[in-house]
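Entry 14. Two folds queued back to back today. First construct below, sequence then structure tokens.
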Amino acid sequence: MGWGDRGVQIKTPEQIDVMRKAGLVVGRTLQLLRESVRPGITTGELDAIAEDSIRSAGATPSFKGYSHPPFPASICASVNDEVVHGIPGERVLAEGDIISIDCGAIVDGWHGDAATTVAVGEVPHDVRELMRVTEEALWHGIAAARLGGRVTDISHAVESHVRSQPHPTGGSYGILEEYVGHGIGSEMHQPPNVPNYGRPGRGPKLVRGLALAVEPMITLASNETTLLPDEWTVGTVDGSWAAHFEHTFTLTPEGAWVLTALDGGEERLQQLGVPFGGH
């Protein structure tokens, strides 16, 4: 997709308020799933919990039936060396695994989209560090967004934070380049793309009414990926483990507002010295 402004959807404040409702459904569902992850539970059981949570809130799962082949579940559940788009099923989580859970919900035609990576019990230090770096990179990306800035200001901030962090084994983290964040609104995926790497000052302007899903996908080694035979699950070529965090956010005249964070992102943004623009 090109860097032009064509196709970029600008929402009214009222439409953003509906996206906040969808974002809260996603945020509460992910909170419930984090609490539900344990050794012995299956990814399919997590999916059932998610679908019940979304539908009980009067929302519709964004993912179910999406694209071709139609995605068969309400969450993506990607374990260990699976980066994104894992299909939930009979896989049993074990002590020491990590699982990326990606969740989307629709309220009155407007979408929310977020993801988190959860440790199953105790995990090795290098994996814990991978999760920390990836989540921090997400927040640094959001914190770099300003009205009048450009999309790749976010990209540059994500990459800069990842590159600044020491690797536990002396190597370097892999930043996925084929899979990126995106615009979001009346569709789950819209222009513009939001890469997790690159030089600042490029791409469409960051303006009021633009909503973006920022989602760093980081590995412990190579960033090369492969598509598994199910035509959805994306895994690492070298088998290195991966983490994935995502939030949907927008900018108001007051600052950033993270629509899928239960507190609107206020705590994390304040820690980074960034104005909070929610209400």
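Second construct, same run, same settings:
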Amino acid sequence: MAGIETSADSQTDARGGRSSLAGNATDKALNLLEAASAPGYPHRLGDVAAAAGVPKASAHRILQNLVVTGFLASDGNGGYGPGPRIRALAARITQGCEEDQVMRAELEVLGRRIGHTVHMGVRTGDVVTLLVKVAGPNPVQDSSRVGMQLPLHTTAIGKCVLAGLDDGQLASLVGRVGLPPRTENSVTDPAELRAELAKVHERGFALDDEENEIGVRCLAVPVHDAKGVVIGAVNVSTIAFLETREALLSRVDLVRTTADALHGLLG
């Protein structure tokens, strides 16, 4: 996949905009592979290119190469989705993966203790991706699913990640993706977000109070890699009318115990 980028592509990137952040040829190919494999496929060329931040002409050439090599599949009508090689790779990674087994086992214990849905999510680019979900016993559930990608600034998991960034990294990210609202409760002001992230950093957990989905309130505690960098978080998801904010906050120590158990697990 290397060597696909042309001088014309480089000139296009140099003009600025989101495409200038796409990186080298390998970065572009990986970003396009991720965008085309996102839930809801098949995805149109323009949508994949925009999501990956790659110029459309360059995206088309790279996508065609990914189809030829079997990493992506084309539906014949201009849509793209995961191909047989990426599906096989995903199966090889997840089947019998010790890390996945540990994460699920820890989350299942947490879920039994608190009686609510729990997740493990990580930062992937400029979004959160849910890796594991253990559904709670309540008949009313949130809309989450494994593989779902969510904004960083409206989710408790995402706020844990953002609180681990320095000022420059945070400003760069906000400049790229903005702070679009998901609900009327979403934080959309950069100064307000910085103030909230300072609290997250200080107290060691984050709260999503119906900011990403109306009726859903979440609490998350960060998970670190072996170097101490926040890569994601363990999240508890509750239905707002079934559990109060105060009751959810009382669970933080249990969530922290689980997050600590996953320290260094993913690198």
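Quick look at the second one. The first helix runs from residue 7 to 14. The radius of gyration is 19 Å.
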